[in-house]
Amino acid sequence: MPYLRVALDVPLPRLFDYWLDSATPADIGRRVVVPFGSRRLVGVVLAILAEPEYEASAIKPAEAVLDDMPALPAPVLGLFQFCADYYQHPLGQVVHTALPTRFRDPNPYRVAEALRYHALDSVALQAQVPKRAALQQRLAQLLATPRSEAELRAAGGTAWKTVQAWLQDGRVRAEQLQPGASVAAPGPALNIEQAEAVQAISAAQGFAAFLLHGITGSGKTEVYLNAIAAVLARGEQALVLVPEINLTPQLEARFLRRFPGVDIVSLNSAVADGERAAGWVRAARGEASIVLGTRLAVFTPVPRLGLVVVDEEHDASFKQQDGLRYSARDVAVYRARQAGVPIVLGSATPALESWQNAEAGRYRHLRLSQRAVVGAQPPQWRLLSTKRQPLQDGLHARTLAALGERLARGEQALVFLNRRGYAPVMHCGECGWMAACTRCSARLTVHLRERTLRCHHCGDEAPLPRVCPGCGNQDMKPLGQGTQRLEDTLAERFPGARILRIDRDSTRRKGSFEAALQAVHAGEVDILIGTQMLAKGHDFPNLTLVAVVGADSGLYSADFRASERLYAQLAQVAGRAGRADKPGEVILQTDFPEHPLYQALLDDDYAAFAATELAERKLAGFPPFLHQAVLRAEADRLDDALAWLRQAALLAPLSEAVTVWDPVAAGMMRLANRERAQLLVQSTARSRLLAFLAEWMVALRAQKAGKVRWSLDVDPLEL
DNA sequence: AGCACGCCGACT
DNA sequence: GTCGGCGTGCTC
Question: Containing H/E element for A690?
Answer without folding.
Answer: helix A686-702
